[in-house]
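Hi everyone,

Forwarding the result from last night's run.
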Amino acid sequence: MAQETAIQLASIAGAIPDFGNGSVFFVGTATVILDYAGFTVLTDPNFLHAGDHAYLGYGLTSKRLTEPALDIEQLPPIDFVVLSHYHGDHFDQIAEEKLAKNLPIVTTGHAAGKLESRNFTKAVALDTWDSVTVTKGEAQVKITAMPGKHGPAMIDFALPDVMGSMLEFSAAGAADKTALRLYISGDTLLIDELKEIPQRYPNIDLGLFHLGGTRIMGILLTMDAEQGVEAIKLINPKEAIPIHYNDYGVFKSPLEDFKKAAEAAGLTGRMRYLSHGETYAFEVPASRWAAA
């Protein structure tokens, strides 16, 4: 049975959350800064520089080819982190050293154990379909773990557990009136378990999809252009932002391939492409969040 926990954050007295406007700032790889409803959320913190190596386990590393849009010291105050899984291109040695050890991090059980062993005190472990609700003043966001699988069955045992995430924002105490629903795929392949997501969540406003076609020893470990297009068609968000591409040597499916595949599939109108350092600003109609 799915479990739900809660986190209460401190807020500025009298602060009124803005449910009408939000933004996604693309740092690089799978790292974004989401600002909405008074929350500032960081995903998959990766601040290595070009030429640095991310640790992937079992002695494997991958060289970063790009620069992050900002350094970790330039981050705004972060309310919590959503972490797909524990790999060095999603939680690197810079994040381990410089993120506050009491920062809430919502992630898998495997990653939570790793973080706790490194003195992070507020890692929240979720199994698939489990949730945690974070409240800050007059706003709340419910984070639910979505299905994910990092590799095919023959090597999945050697890979860390991964999760996608569904973030549902609403006024505090009004979870039945969702203002914004945002999906993050995490480092998953296109698996049958994803079919349950649109059944449970038929109205998704925005999706962030981890692409890149990661291959190690020729084995596909993240969605390439073809799988990414099929995943967007399946999950069916109103708008989609591809992330996690072109940044590391193990990423073998460039963004240009995805753009061509998305255009061929008739998805261009709902795609929002961001380069490092670019922001996608969005509006949410008052009918979604204003009191009747």
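The mean pLDDT is 93.

Cheers,
N.
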